[in-house]
Amino acid sequence: MDRKRILVVRPDELGPGELKTWRELRAESGAPGNPFLDPAFTTAVGQVSPAARVAVLQDDGTPVGFFPYEKGPLGQGRAIGLSVSDSQGAVLRPGVRVDPRTLLAACRLSSWEFDNLEAGQDLFLPYAVERLAAPVVDLDAGYGPYLDGLRTRSPGFLKQTLAKERRLARQVGEVRFVYDARDPEALRALMRWKSAQYRRTGRRDRFAQQWITGLVDLLAHGDDPECRGVLSVLYAAGRPVAAHFGLRSATVLSWWFPAYDRDLGRYSPGLVLHLRMLEAAAADGIRMVDLGSGPARYKDSLKTRELPVYEGAVVRGGAGGAAYRLGREPARAARRFVRGHPRVAAAARHTLTRLARLRER
């Protein structure tokens, strides 16, 4: 008799033993302890998204794998927290093998989409259509050695940022930094700044989506050492001028929502915040800061290396799979084309910015 089974449950139906096993399997994999692949993140998404599910792979009644996902119309699935999750995939005991389409069939999914698939996810890598780079900052040796390396790699960046911090203190007021702030007003300011940035650049405002604001609020009030939100705030003259809300595990901090007060943009308060954060994170036991995929000049200056992440989808046959291909593949192909042609990408960004400004009039 086949002793292997796949059970599908809601995240809140996972028991303490299963949560413990999930974390043990992650540790056995040797992958970085990214908080987005911790069960606490899936559980939090489950509280704001009724579509959240977890497939539990069992061998003779013992859990040997977990596959978190969200299920949409016609069985179209997506990675848990897609669009805000920076690390995606399944958590499997080393050596466990399962056919991806068999897994999707057990979950009643016609497709499963990912945009930040973790490296080493051999189950899904054959279905990746694009490889992206996620810059990271290694802090294993501490902040001092990292700063020495930054001074060598990007001397102008470091010198200018430190000079702007001094100018901010002189011209605006005393500069103060709090690494793990419990400041609801600062969090609201961060959301306002970030929403304005999304609109200004023609991107969809994530904080206009209730499930995302609900998720951030849940994680901001969490206290799980393996997955909790960290709000870092830079103050000048007693008021927030830059902030970042990220997600951390015991050893990895994921860059998530950074923003700053544009009225003080000439002082680069966001960059000042980044340097202060890296120093505090290293002192707090963080060994790697994942800056997330997506181009940004400050990431190029801060990073020590890059990790690969992948975009793509597993698609089964049938009406649901066909609907996915018709609805999503053209847009994906267009994005890949734009990313592969820098001049086209620059023109697209310029057009989006102009459209956003017209909407604001």
From TrEMBL:
Gene3D superfamilies on file: 3.40.630.30
Segments forming domain BioF2-like acetyltransferase: 159-299
Coiled coil (residue ranges): none
InterPro entries: Acyl_CoA_acyltransferase, BioF2-like_GNAT_dom
Protein name in the entry: Cellulose biosynthesis protein CelD
The organism of origin for this protein: Streptomyces calvus
